[in-house]
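Key result, reporting period 2: structure in, sequence out.
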């Protein structure tokens, strides 16, 4: 073991090891430079631990980014919150709150309650309530046949 993680320390140690032909290292640029300077003839490869660590991170990132598409592909209509990560759970809970609020607004719009009154009752912005009122008018308008 070397006393520290400084590239100069690694270079000094490597200079004393001319028999080394292959250096397994992490992806740190300082170590790459130290190895190239100390043993220019030696090949450099990523060590197994860092390969697995990087592959694991890449895999988990890809899965997290595609969970919605995965759930659609396997036909999962409902989510089990126990299977979500903490970040996904927070996102899902926010989604449920928004859906509930939007349903209340849509219900009041369909009852003919004014935008001003819906804003007063729900505490939501005029912009949000107006958006739902406009959607309601769009989907419930008379379609003229030319």
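The corresponding designed sequence is given below.
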């Amino acid at each position: 073991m070397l006393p520290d993680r400084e590239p100069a320390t690694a270079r000094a140690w490597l200079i004393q090891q001319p028999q080394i032909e292959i250096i397994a290292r992490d992806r740190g640029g300082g170590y790459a430079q130290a190895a190239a300077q100390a043993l220019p003839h030696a090949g450099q490869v990523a060590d197994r631990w860092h390969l697995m660590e990087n592959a694991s991170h890449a895999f988990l990132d890809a899965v997290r980014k595609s969970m919605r598409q995965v759930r659609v592909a396997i036909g999962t209509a409902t989510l089990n919150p126990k299977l979500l990560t903490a970040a996904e759970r927070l996102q899902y809970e926010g989604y449920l709150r928004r859906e509930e609020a939007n349903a209340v607004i849509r219900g009041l719009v369909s009852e003919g309650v004014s935008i001003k009154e819906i804003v007063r009752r729900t505490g939501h912005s005029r912009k949000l309530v107006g958006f739902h009122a406009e959607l309601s008018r769009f989907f419930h308008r008379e379609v003229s046949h030319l």
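The chain has two domains: 7-65, 78-139. Helices lie at 7-15, 29-38, 48-65, 67-73, 86-110, 115-122, 126-139. This case is discussed further under Risks and Mitigation.
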